[in-house]
């Protein structure tokens, strides 16, 4: 059976403020290559049909230099980001036309594998959604005031990206007004009354937020 069109929206909106670095985290280099390039290369290896990159307009010029050096032969549509991740994804969705499947990915997750990306597309074609997730390894406790309570970690997952959806379903969900509870695409979709299908993520698919994360990503990427 012929597969539907595959879109990808890569969100590169981080400022790197928690890393005390003047360079936005998506442009920080690992082994000489900017973080966001690793993510984009993984999507192109997955044979995505349309790739959309969303970032603040003030970084467009910097991005053009990166693209010219690392991805000169690839077609990448650049879109201006919004005030929040929600608004950035919504801006990106304006450039997506169905039918098909769209994957949303944070550029600050450079260790994403092509296998995980493909698994997301395939699962979303079957279930209309596919959200990468990994089980908790540590014990967890819930805090309420000065009281903490042990919780069953088997009931919880760490959610990653890519988060992949049927285009029409995701566009409808993103037509809703913004709410502070929208921390990712899955939360937007569930608020619109849909369940999301979880797929097995990868513990190496970390999000770079701190200098320690950057060190881990450097280690993981050195094995590729």
Structure overview:
The chain is α/β, with parallel strands linked by helices and 224 residues long. It has one domain: Spore Coat Polysaccharide Biosynthesis Protein SpsA, Chain A (Alpha-Beta Complex), CATH 3.90.550. It is 31% helix and 26% strand. It is built from seven helices and eleven strands. It has helices at 35-45, 60-70, 85-93, 114-127, 167-173, 185-191, 211-221; strands at residues 5-11, 29-30, 33-34, 50-55, 77-80, 100-106, 129-135, 140-144, 147-151, 157-166, 198-200. The protein has a seven-stranded mixed beta sheet with strand order 5-4-1-6-10-7-11, with helices on both faces. Strands 2-3 form a two-stranded antiparallel ribbon. Strands 8-9 form a two-stranded antiparallel sheet. A hairpin with a 2-residue loop joins strand 8 (140-144) and strand 9 (147-151). The longest helix has 14 residues, at 114-127. The two termini are 32 Å apart. The mean pLDDT is 93.
Query: SSE string, helix = H, strand = E?
Result: EEEHEHEHEHEEEEHHEH
Write down how many β-strands occur, each being a DSSP E stretch of 2 or more residues: 11
Q: How much beta, percentage-wise?
A: 25-35%
CATH class category label: Alpha Beta
What are the segments in which pLDDT stays under 50 over at least 5 consecutive residues?
none
Strand order of the largest sheet: 5-4-1-6-10-7-11
What name does CATH use for the topology?
Answer: Spore Coat Polysaccharide Biosynthesis Protein SpsA, Chain A
Oligomer status: single chain
Count of discrete alpha- or pi-helical segments spanning 4 or more residues: 7
N→C terminal distance: 32 Å
Query: What's the shape?
Result: globular
CATH architecture: Alpha-Beta Complex
Number of domains: 1
Mean of pLDDT: 93
Could you estimate the helical fraction of the residues in percent?
A: 25-40%
